[in-house]
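If you are new to this repository, start here. Below is one unmodified record pulled from the training split, so you can see the exact layout before writing a loader.
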Amino acid sequence: MANPPTMTAPRAKLAASAAVLMPFITVVAAILLAVAGYFLLLVPKIRPLMAGGAYDFSAIKTQLASDEDYIKKMMESLDGYSKLEEAKLSRVAAIMPLEADIPGLMVQIDEIARANKMALQSIDTATDEKNVSPLGRKVVRISLSLTGGDYAQFKLLLADLERSLRLFDVATLSFGADGKAYGVVLKTYYIDRKATPTAKK
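And here is the target side for that same chain:
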């Protein structure tokens, strides 16, 4: 039987070198695969978590701190508001109510007229729906017709209107020929909650 062919010396040397280098080559290949996998698979996944990414924790923490500070200030404001005396709150509501309260206006003006020995002959009111301030303030225009009393009493009536908690601005005055009939146009104000910026949001 013929003997199997034997490997020449150079080929045998090359095979021996390859066998020695194989573990090193395997380790290098594994490292290259790991690096490639990191950049191709992991980096796209963790990029949103890096600085400036969509899920950057530092930006979220900054926003959270800002929100917590805002909530703290709101709670302090609410606490301060709850400590206000009821009388002060009622006074503010009387100065600038949250509704026109036309019946209340009529009663108040009639009481002031009677206190000055004058008679309220007629009263007409109209709310200006077009001119609204940025904070929702609206104007109620009031036209009065009064009789009785002399000019001194009429001046006292105007003074009482000025001292009233409810804000009144005198727009126009008119006098009858007999000196005992008067016409007054007043403006008063209220806050329409439906027209405030908070209500529009």
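Two things worth knowing about this chain: The two ends are 101 Å apart (CA to CA). The longest helix spans residues 9-46.
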